[in-house]
Amino acid sequence: MHAYAIQSSQGMVKLDTMENPHRLPLELQHALGQRLGALALNRYPDARVDDLRHALAAHARMPDGFGIMLGNGSDELISLLAMACDVPVPLGGKKPVILAPIPGFVMYAMSAALQGLDFYGVPLTPDFDLDEAAMLRAIAQQQPALVYLANPNNPTAKLWDAQAMARIVSAAGQAGSIVVIDEAYQPFSSRDYLDTIRALPQAHTHVLLMRTMSKFGLAGVRIGYMVGPAELIAQVDKVRPPFNISVLNYECALFALEHQEVFAAQACDIRAQRAMLLEALRSLPGAHAWDSDANMLLVRFDGAPDRAQYVFDGLKQRGVLVKNVSKMHPLLANCLRLTVGTAAENMRLLRALQEIL
């Protein structure tokens, strides 16, 4: 295995990790600072964390009969799900399986490896859509404990076909699998899977939905949350460590939710910048950019097998840091993933790409 690597971004335009590029307005910075300074940091987190659960449930418009669980980012929730599914197997029996489309978020496979479970990846189509037939075969053959469907997906930024997704969710339920819909990029997406769950609750008793406040605008605060049928959430919650959400983290998150109109305006700006960036990228020679429902764009650069590395290095030399995903999976050959930044950051990215290409 390899440790999760974080690129140094000092002095760079940072467009590599899908963060919201906007900081808090100055007056909110001061208000938050005063609020955090007054906290009892000498005490363990208290029932105030329940206030955050209620606030997030209201923010997400959580359906009746659902429970909510908090994690130190979505990463912790993904680890806890693997732990919850790591049940003893009879001698000679098959280890629990985690199944997901690939390429996808690396932590699904990593959580399986760290917990000693098997991971089964189902390749996407060449245009990064779900291979529905392959997914259905894999679910029938593997009988997975967990099926992850990141929607929009990372690093491809695409939404899945709704009908294909419905059939996969149904097949997973028939196989006894738990389906985890990962909506990390929901603030930038044109669809909300909770609408589907509300419309068809009986078809989703085996479904958990996961979101994060990182893309909302609080990547440094590390708050992920998961909602689902209360009985199912209660089972996963058994493996959660005590006090996993710090006093500072939950107070920052509550403050942000009290000013969510500020973050909604930021998300609106990011969506507008995404449209501008997509149009501009498609006018560049030798660049192919896919549609996106996230705050990132996947771009393939035509040319030699090392073309993505050449463009990545050229951007870095010009002070722009993106993510080279070209070695993550054969389907991603010559692809870079670009985070949508501020208007000024995006113009700097485009100028650099024009020079390189």
Q: SSE layout and pairings?
A:
Blueprint: E1 13-14, H1 26-37, H2 48-60, E2 66-71, H3 73-85, E3 97-102, H4 106-115, E4 118-123, H5 132-142, E5 146-150, H6 162-174, E6 178-182, H7 193-199, E7 207-212, H8 214-218, E8 224-229, H9 230-237, H10 247-258, H11 260-281, E9 287-289, E10 296-301, H12 307-317, E11 320-321, E12 323-324, E13 335-339, H13 343-356
Parallel strand pairs: 1-11, 3-4, 3-5, 5-6, 6-7
Antiparallel strand pairs: 2-8, 7-8, 9-10, 10-13, 12-13
Please state the structural category: alpha/beta
CATH superfamily of the largest domain: Type I PLP-dependent aspartate aminotransferase-like (Major domain)
The sequence of SSEs as H and E is EHHEHEHEHEHEHEHEHHHEEHEEEH
What Rg is obtained from the alpha carbons, in whole angstroms?
21 Å
Looking at the structure, the CATH topology of the largest domain is Aspartate Aminotransferase, domain 2
What share of the residues does DSSP label as strand, in percent? 15-25%
Note the overall shape. Answer: globular
In the CATH scheme, the class of the largest domain would be: Alpha Beta
> How is the largest sheet built, in terms of strand order?
2-8-7-6-5-3-4
Provide mean pLDDT, rounded: 96
What is the CATH-assigned architecture of the largest domain? 3-Layer(aba) Sandwich
Number of domains: 2
Total beta strands: 13
What kind of oligomer do you see?
single chain
User: Describe the biggest sheet?
Assistant: 7 strands, mixed
Tally of alpha and pi helices? 13
Helix content: 40-55%
Q: Terminal Cα separation, in Å?
A: 35 Å
Low-confidence stretches: none
